[in-house]
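>> Question from a student workshop board

For tomorrow's exercise we were told to take the sequence and the ligand below, predict the bound structure, and bring the output to class. My setup keeps failing. Could a helper post the expected result so I can at least see what it should look like? The ligand is zinc ion.
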Amino acid sequence: MRCEVCGRKIHGKSYKVMIERAKLTVCGKCAKHGTIVWEKKKPRTIALKTKAPTRQLPLKIKSKRPLQAAVESTLELVEAFDVTIRQAREKLGFSHEDLGRRISEKVSVLKKVETGKMTPDNKLATKLEHALKIKLLVQASEEKIPKAEIKPVSREPTLGDLVQLDKKKTEDKTQRKQS
Ligand SMILES: [Zn+2]
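>> Workshop helper replied:
Here is what the output should look like for this input. Compare the format with yours to find the bug.
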């Protein structure tokens, strides 16, 4: 089969396109210049298939979420996590082995955590929270975040303003590039 536009042999897929009101069978390269027309049987399903942006959408949302979560909720381990864990475990009648099996964690790790020799990371703390029905991670108190350092509060109309203005412009540009 030959391409009706450029005359070259069509290797692989051929396209039926509308070019200046003529229906032509062309190669992939020439198909870009015309409007692709489909066999009359099922034009709708094919058109839908070629669009299919459904996969990209949830992916985009996913990539944004963990970022927001990290910014919004700064979790902190409670101070007496060692005592809390040990008491909760004993109350439930679990041995170190029992608990270790439940949350698939080494007994040695649990012992270290209960004696305060080791600080559990968020993942382990969350597992312990669920297994022992206790609260180990709490919202970090806001006072600890140094707000003063974020924005300098000088608002004097001086020469410095011009520099600031320039700085702001470039900042805006970089922000736009990032988004
Ligand atoms: Zn061609």
